[in-house]
Prior knowledge:
2 copies of one chain form a homodimer. By secondary structure, the first copy, chain A, is mainly α. In chain A, 69% of the residues lie in helices and 0% in strands. Chain A contains 9 helices and no strands. Chain A has helices at 13-28, 35-42, 48-53, 56-82, 85-98, 100-106, 117-137, 141-163, 175-183. In chain A, helix 4 packs antiparallel against helix 5. The longest helix of chain A has 27 residues, at 56-82. Chains A and B meet through helix 8 and helix 9 of A and helix 8 and helix 9 of B. The structure holds a DNA duplex.
Amino acid sequence: MAPSPRPYHHGDLPRALIAAALELIDEVGPAALSLREVARRAGVSHGAPAHHFGDKAGLLTAVAAQGYELLGAALADAFESTGEFREVGVAYVRFALSHRAHFEVMFRPELYRDDDPAVVAARVPSSAMLYGPPADLSGDAVTAVNGAVAAWSLVHGFATLWLSGNLERAVPGDPEGAARAITGFLSIRR
Amino acid sequence: MAPSPRPYHHGDLPRALIAAALELIDEVGPAALSLREVARRAGVSHGAPAHHFGDKAGLLTAVAAQGYELLGAALADAFESTGEFREVGVAYVRFALSHRAHFEVMFRPELYRDDDPAVVAARVPSSAMLYGPPADLSGDAVTAVNGAVAAWSLVHGFATLWLSGNLERAVPGDPEGAARAITGFLSIRR
DNA sequence: CGCGATATCTAGTCAGTGTCAAGTTCGGGT
DNA sequence: ACCCGAACTTGACACTGACTAGATATCGCG
């Protein structure tokens, strides 16, 4: 699994390019990402990224797919280790804040190809974690899906508001604790 | 009110530029907005926008400020005409969907100058509508602010998830009704 | 061991963009 | 009537994403 020091021609470039892209997105946001700057940081020529990803949207598509995989794993881990749906929501917020670059790309579908097979497949596990548990808590199907959407909306809104700097005044201190407190206002069961 | 065919030198350009920008953002998103295309649509030279707004961030700053004004008015109107905090949340979603361009700019602070005096001032009324009513419903201050953050997160998350195309499968039909249903899962009072 | 095929990457080019500096045109106040 | 300044134009520069042709290194295969 450990890649050799220089597995190929110059190294395994796709991974290096994604890493550089994530770093750059953390600095300037996903919209201002520059393929040429990514190439520069990876130490390759400006045309190299196009070979692996086709175009800018292709690179961001890879980032989004990776993000969905990581999110699905994080949510599943939270549910399995605590057994509480509430902690899935907290894990969602934790993921958004700790993987900001992934998260911001994932929810800007105009920046990548959200119908790419890799993305569609990577989305499945996280979807299951968001919609599955409420179905066990609630009786009828419509309440379950509405409850799931409410819970998703709550944590997604909290995460995006935090990332856009809108909550720092109202919620000082650590965001994870605040997120856990916020989820207390939801009444899914019933 | 109706402006003459060519009221001034060329018309009242700032307004025309903002209108063209909103139209373009609706088509390609706020990140892919091009100042030159905006100028083209307004029928002026490519350098004209810079004269009025300084740079691209300046134009988006004006859009954001206008957006906060409209949002504040919409929320206040909803509260005054119904007396229910819940309808403020529904109005928030309605604003996001009907003023998509404004909304998307407002919550991407990296695209404009969010510390601009005009923006800061325009934010006041909407902030009051988001934080005010819960303070009347709840006893202590910390519960009030947490409840406000929860309510804001819920409707903000719903709106952004809808705009990014993540709810069309789970919530078919009209989003406003769905938003009203979603707010039913919140228990602010108590 | 060698050689061709192919993936990988480089380098050059083109249209389009944001921003800046310098011009040009027009309006209103004195 | 004049002229100062605001509104806009024009041209330039560096940068970007995308495309192309070409160079180079790695691997398959004898």
